[in-house]
Amino acid sequence: MAQDSMGDLPLEEFEIPAADEVEALRQERDELRDKFMRALADAENARKRAERDRREAEQYGGSRLARDMLSVHDNLKRALDAASEEHRAAAAALIEGVELTLRELSSTLAKHGVTAVSPAIGDIFDPQLHQAMFEAPVPGTTAGQIIQVMTEGFLLHDRLLRPAQVGVSSNTGG
Predict the structure, then answer these.
(1) Rounded-to-10 torsion of CA 155, 158, 159, 160
(2) What is the pLDDT of residues 85-117, one digit of tens each?
(3) pTM above threshold 0.70
(4) 115-174 CATH fold
């Protein structure tokens, strides 16, 4: 009885698989390798997706609160805009307090990535940043020029939080 090089098993006990069995095993191996590679790719994609979701939640998670705070900002600006010189002289301390509050609110919003979109009269209307509230033919303007700014818009990092509300010229010529 012949023995293998290890000296412990007789060679007669080894059965050499047929060629079709070898091919079936290779196919199974290849299928398992393919499934394994797909599972690795899926796991990597899930990791990247979770990381992206985490970053977005960190960056944009406060967008509802920031959006709600914009009305406070608007009201403070309206209060200051409504104050005449007589009111400013009579209630200087109150006006200064409102101005300080508005500056603090603006600073806090900026610290968290909220920036104002402040179009000027004469700028070109940009539907990505502005919301047209009305159109009117105004002499000396061309179609698409901003003729009035009702409220500022705001961005949260690179996302529009609220568009600037503007009036737009409907003139077809200058």
Answers:
(1) 40
(2) 998 999 999 999 999 999 999 999 999 999 999
(3) no
(4) Nucleotide Exchange Factor Grpe; Chain A, domain 2 (2.30.22)
